[in-house]
Amino acid sequence: MTDTEGDGLDLAERIAGVLRERLITGAAVPGEQLSEAALASDLEVSRNTLREAFRILIHEGTLERIPNRGVFVRVPSVSSILDVFRVRRVIEVAAVREALPKHPAIADARDAVERAKQAQEIPEWTIVGTANMEFHSALVSLADSPRLNIFFQNVLAELRIAFVSLHSAEHLHAPFVEQNEELTVLLEQGRMTEAAAELETYLARSERLVLASFGRMGQS
């Protein structure tokens, strides 16, 4: 990827997307400083383009710029996690409740579940975590809204940063592999109302688990 591809703003948005995807896959640690020189070289873009991509992610809340130090992956707070789960309940539950039977995204959810189950057997919890992100992305895709899909990628990036900060991938993801399977079965059977109710309970449980883990770490 080079700066000759498209205009500067479009390229910066694409680079922001690449960085966002790295956050979603757990490739960056909260509090980690991002090297402008290394990333510009790795992504084959100018520093000006990279700075614009940083600006986009800073605005979204996944990165922060500390004066005289540089750009860092933002360390999540309890209040930010509460907000992420508030957004998830509004978006994911509605998407599932209103989904059309046989929607193609249900197959995507099934694929994500199978990847998580295979990774759990190894076990490779980072891969399980990424498959979990893909599962919830598939749920939002049930709404058939490109705008929601784009917005939700940032929500997932914030969520994955929080998960990585807790250093307990198995504790966070193991309980939900089976629940993702159960939700997918309900979707495959066209039982959308039941799936939405189950997802409400699921998200409340996940929120309690994450907040309890933050509490044990003394986060505030």
TrEMBL record:
SMART domains: FCD (SM00895), HTH_GNTR (SM00345). Keywords: DNA-binding, Transcription, Transcription regulation. GO terms for molecular function: DNA binding; DNA-binding transcription factor activity. The keyword Nuclease does not apply. PROSITE patterns: HTH_GNTR (PS50949). Pfam families: FCD (PF07729), GntR (PF00392). Residues 9-76 form the HTH gntR-type domain. Gene3D superfamilies: GntR ligand-binding domain-like, Winged helix-like DNA-binding domain superfamily/Winged helix DNA-binding domain. Transmembrane segments: none annotated. PANTHER family: GNTR FAMILY REGULATORY PROTEIN (PTHR43537:SF45), TRANSCRIPTIONAL REGULATOR, GNTR FAMILY (PTHR43537). This is HTH gntR-type domain-containing protein. It comes from bioreactor metagenome.
